[in-house]
Write a structure and sequence with these properties.
This protein has two domains: 156 residues, Quinone Oxidoreductase, Chain A, domain 1; 137 residues, Medium-chain alcohol dehydrogenases, catalytic domain (Quinone Oxidoreductase, Chain A, domain 1, Alpha-Beta Complex), CATH 3.90.180. The strands form three sheets. Strands 3, 4, 5, 6, 7, 14 and 15 form a seven-stranded mixed sheet that branches. The protein has a six-stranded parallel sheet with strand order 10-9-8-11-12-13, with helices on both faces. Strand 12, helix 9 and strand 13 form a beta-alpha-beta unit. Helix 4 crosses helix 5. It has 324 residues and is α/β, with parallel strands linked by helices. The protein is built from eleven helices and 15 strands.
Length: 324
């Protein structure tokens, strides 16, 4: 099969190789997916860069955890009925060496999710990490039906998913964005109210929700924690999946006095049951008419290094994908 891989970490143009590898064969409990589209997440780029200092987990890595395509072979204990099914997958390169930047990938059956007929392979290719992260961030503190959820960074990929999933679950959703252009993205995702970040944000939120926000989905824990605590309801919750600094400071006593609950969401280690619940909810939301995310750039497998560079230094909003 044609695939892309790296055997050392570093700059994309220096370490990514495109070539031929043997076709993988599914083991017990696995399915083989003929990849149509591979989705690139920031985490895929960080692994290749060794951003967290973990080093090479395997001698050779085919990058990318998310993708979509057709099941074309199954291993022992997997029904033959899966062959020919349209699927999206998650975790292909999570604690596994070979991801979706290839003609074929293998995943355990529970990581292959039937792709609704109304959803394209392009959309399916980036449902995994951002969608599951967003679902966990929305629901980790409990049901949100009838509650007010604030999504910080509502124009981002996880933020857009969080808006759609929270609305589908019956929440009132307020989103923050950085620009008027981003306002359109959050609106498309389904936010009830959209606010520009800035000095007047706290006042605007307090006027909209005098009793405080029930739950916050947070993209920048270090930058926003002081704002979050000002607008959080007594006993409210914050679920953060990212921070711009490695060791952020927190207003400890203000959080104590608010009886705040804080959850940290790492996509690779979300419990299996929560991932399955998220996959079901993502499909339901898409089938209900949620428009999903836009594609910013399309590349071929041969141009994977350029695609990674675009993810590192984006010039427009939307996802970057490889067509295989």
């Amino acid at each position: 099969m044609k695939s892309a891989w790296y055997e050392k970490q570093g700059e994309a143009s220096n370490v990514l190789i495109v070539g031929e590898m043997d076709d993988p064969q599914p083991g017990a409990g696995e399915v083989r997916i003929r990849i149509a589209v591979s989705g690139i997440n920031p985490g895929d780029v960080k692994k290749r860069q060794n951003a967290f200092g973990v080093g090479m987990p395997y001698p050779r890595v085919i990058p990318h955890s998310d993708g979509a395509g057709l099941v074309d072979a199954v291993g022992e204990d997997v029904s033959q009925e899966w062959i020919g099914q349209r699927v999206w997958c998650h975790g292909a390169q999570t604690y596994r060496p070979f991801g979706t930047a290839a003609e074929y990938t293998l995943v355990p059956l529970e990581q292959a999710v039937r792709l609704p007929e109304v959803v394209s392979f392009e959309q399916g290719a980036f449902l995994g990490i951002p969608g599951i992260t967003a679902h966990r961030a929305v629901h980790v503190a409990g049901p949100v039906e009838g509650k007010t959820v604030l999504v910080q960074g509502g124009a981002g990929t996880v933020g857009s998913f969080a808006i759609g999933l929270a609305r589908h679950a019956g929440a009132r959703v307020i989103a923050t964005v950085r620009s008027e252009r981003d306002r359109e993205i959050a609106s498309r995702a389904g936010a009830n109210e959209i606010l520009l970040m800035g000095e007047t944000l706290v006042g605007q939120i307090k006027r909209l929700v005098p009793g405080g926000i029930d739950h916050i989905v947070e993209v920048a824990f270090d930058a926003n924690i002081n704002t979050d605590i000002e607008i959080l309801a007594q006993g409210g919750s914050i679920a953060s999946y990212a921070s711009n600094v490695f060791t952020p400071e927190i207003p400890f006593w203000l959080l104590v006095f608010s009886n705040a609950r804080i959850f940290f969401v790492g996509s690779d280690d979300i419990p299996k049951e929560a991932k399955m619940e998220a996959a079901h909810a993502i499909n339901q939301t898409l089938e209900a008419g949620w428009q999903g995310l836009n594609v910013a750039e399309r590349f071929t497998l041969h141009d994977i290094a350029q695609a990674h560079e675009i993810v590192e230094q984006p010039t427009k909003s939307g996802r970057v994908i490889l067509t295989i």
